[in-house]
Amino acid sequence: MPRTDDADSDRLRALLERAATGRDSQAWSDLWTELFHNGSLDVAHPLVLRTLADMAQADRADTAATALHLAGALLVQADQRYETRKLRHQYAPEVARLLGAANRWRPLTADRNDYCYLIEAVLNLEGDIHWAEDLIWGLVSEEYELECPAPDGCASLWMIIGERGFFSAAEDYALTDDVETFPLHPADPRALEGLGRRLYDLALADGHQEVARALTYAFGEATCPECEQRFSVVGQVIACSS
Q1: Which tens digit of pLDDT belongs to each residue from 66-85?
Q2: Which residues contact 212 (CB under 8 A, 6 or more apart)?
Q3: What is the extent of the structural domain holding 149?
Q4: Are residues 158 and 122 part of one domain?
Q5: Rounded to the nearest 10 degrees, what angle do helices 46-57 and 61-82 cross at?
Q6: Confidence label for 212 from pLDDT (cuts 50, 70 and 90)
Q7: pTM here?
Q8: How far, CA to CA in Å, does 138 sit from each of 6, 49, 116, 120, 172?
């Protein structure tokens, strides 16, 4: 991980202090850029996860949500970049505080997309999967862009999940009027297992029936319009995120 000198420590402290006010979007943008995108600031600095946990446990919902999103993303990135969970172990108390805050805010969040991002934060903070961002991206954007799982990868596919319908297409349906579509096959909620069951039950318990319904399609099956092979949507989300 990058070394941190005094100047970097001062900049990091200043950015975190500005972000904590809840009124400085540029500070959050700079934190994402310098901690996550280019790594010019050290994610392992003691201030990072400790301060993000403080923000998450405070009373400002918007600041807490942003802090949780960034913290979860940083942990997953560190897991993958360094092929070790050292950062999680080093800051286990802070990670526990962050996860507790995420689960506290989760049932209090009414906005659909904000709720989805909190679920992403929970999954990233738990650290059991590396593809939560890709799963949640599809729920928020109401579409997944995937590859057919056939050996020759016969087509790029769009899975539409939301207000525009529930179907798969081999072309960008938004650019043509006569694109062929195939209906998606949602999972029977009673047959869901593992993560799908857990997320479905959480969404229902938290009052997000629309998210729960979308999850049955994300954990259901789709048909490739080119070769007509039927496949698991979440299976391809995982395959394409590897």
Answers
A1: 999 999 999 999 999 887 89
A2: 189, 200, 203, 204
A3: 138-241
A4: no
A5: 150
A6: very high
A7: 0.93
A8: 41, 27, 10, 12, 15
